[in-house]
Amino acid sequence: MDGGAFAPALSAGQASRTVEISVRKRPIAGTRPRAMAVLVALRAVQIALPLTAAVLMVVAMGIVLPAAVRAQGGWSAPTVTPPETPETPDWRVPDPRTGAPPASGMQRPRNETAAPLVPSGRAVLAVEALLTADSPPIDRGLVWRVFRLGNDATPPRLVTVSREPQATLTLEPGEYAVNAAFGRAHLTQIMTLESGRRRMETFVLNAGGLRVKAMVAGAGDAIHASARYDIFTDERDQSGDRRRILSNARPGLITRLNSGIYHIVSRLGDANAVVSADVAVEAGKLTEAVVSHEAGKVTFKLVREAAGEAQADTQWIIMTQGGEIVKETAGALPSHLLAPGRYSVSARWGGKLFTQTFEIKSGDNIEVEVLMR
To answer: Which end of the chain is more exposed for a tag (fewer CB within 10 A), N or C?
Structure first.
C-alpha cells in the first residue's frame, strides 16, 4: 500500500496465511561505543598530566619571582580586567502548548528550531497519524478534515482540509471534530482548542490493507478481466442489510481499511457468477483474499438452420430451471459468464419466441444455437 509498506498476509474464504508487516523504523540517536569512551578518557588523562605540571610550575614562579622583585623594591602587581563576553542567546525550547519558555536550565542544541509562537487570539493544532501504536508516522496518502462544532441546531461546518502527512493548523479557539482519512480507513476525534495554546495530537488508525484477486477455477493464477467486487461491513442494520463501503472495485488493487471483519462480494461478468466471503483485516498488515469462481462462458445465436447465420436484433432472456430470470440481453451474438448449472434461453425475433435448454460447467466456453422452428 502507499504510505506504509505492507508485507503479504492473508485470509479469504479459502486458504490463508499471514506474514508480519515490514515496518520502517526511524533511526534512534545512540551513544558512542564504550571502547571509544574509554579511549577518550585515556587521552584526557594524557593531556591533563602535563597540564598539571605546568600549572604547578607557574604557581611556584608566581610565589618566588614576585618575592624577589619586591625585595628589590621595583615591582607592583598589575590590575587585570576580564574581557567582556557577549550576551548568551536564549536557546531554550518553548512549551509546545503555550509557546512560553520553560524553566531556566532547559536548553536545546543550536541546530534545533523553536516551535512557532501561537498567534494572538488563535490556537495551533499539530497532527500526525499512525497505522498502529508502534508504527512510524504515515508519510503520504492522508487527508485531514477539520469541522467546527456548534450547538445542536447548528450542523458541523468544514473549516479546513489538509493533505500534509504531519499538518500544523492555525484555528480559532473552540470545539472541533478532526477526521484523519487514509483510503477507506479513518478516525475522528473531538477536541477543544484554547486561545494562545498549541496542541499536538497523534491519531492511531489501527488500519490495514485488503487486496482481492478473482480467478476462474482451473484457469491458472490470472485475474479475470471482467471481475469486480464490493466491500460491505460485517454488521447488519435492523433490516438485515450490510452497509456498502466500496463498490465495483477492480481486483489486484489495495484498499486501506480499519481493522475488522468485512464481507466481500465478487462478480464475474454481468450475470450470476458471484462469490461472497468474509475476510478479516488486521492492523498494520496486508490481507490478500483469493476468490475462486466456478463459471463458464456461453455465446448465443438465433439461426434458421444448424450452423446458420445469426439473426440480428434478437432479444434474449436467460432463466434458471426454476424460472428465475438471470439475464436479459440483446444482439446477434451475446456472450455471458454463468455459474455452472442447467438453464433455458428464450430468443424473441420478429414477434416470435424460440426456446432452447442447455447446461454449462465450470471452465466451459460453449455456443448455444437456437433454431427458428
So the answer is: C
pTM of the model: 0.65
Q: Which residues pair with 202 in a beta bridge?
A: 128
Q: Are 26 and 136 in contact (CB under 8 A)?
A: yes
pLDDT, tens digit (0-9, with 9 covering 90-100), for 302-327: 999 999 999 999 999 999 999 999 99
What is the C-alpha to C-alpha distance for residues 178 and 334, in angstroms, rounded to an integer?
Answer: 51
CB 331 within 8 A of CB 349: no
Q: What angle do CA 202, 145, 156 make, to 5 degrees?
A: 115
Range of the domain at 157: 123-204
Residue 144 lies inside a defined structural domain of this protein:
yes
Closest CA to 317 of 295, 338, 345, 357: 345
Residue 217 belongs to a domain: yes
Residue 170, Cβ neighbours under 10 Å: how many? 14
Q: Please give the residue that has the higher pLDDT: either 119 or 50.
A: 119
Per the structure, how many domains does the chain have? 3
**Tens-digit pLDDT profile for residues 172-183:** 999 999 999 999
Per-residue pLDDT tens over the stretch 178-237: 999 999 999 999 999 999 999 999 999 999 999 999 888 876 666 678 899 999 999 999
Query: Cα(269)–Cα(110) distance, rounded to whole angstroms?
Result: 64
| Cα-based torsion angle of the residue sequence 204, 210, 253, 181 in order, rounded to the nearest 10 degrees | -20
Cα 275 from Cα 251, distance rounded (Å):
13
DSSP readout, 317-337?
Answer: EEEETT--EEEEEESSS-EEE
Rounded alpha-carbon distances, angstroms, from residue 267 to 242, 288, 343: 17, 17, 19
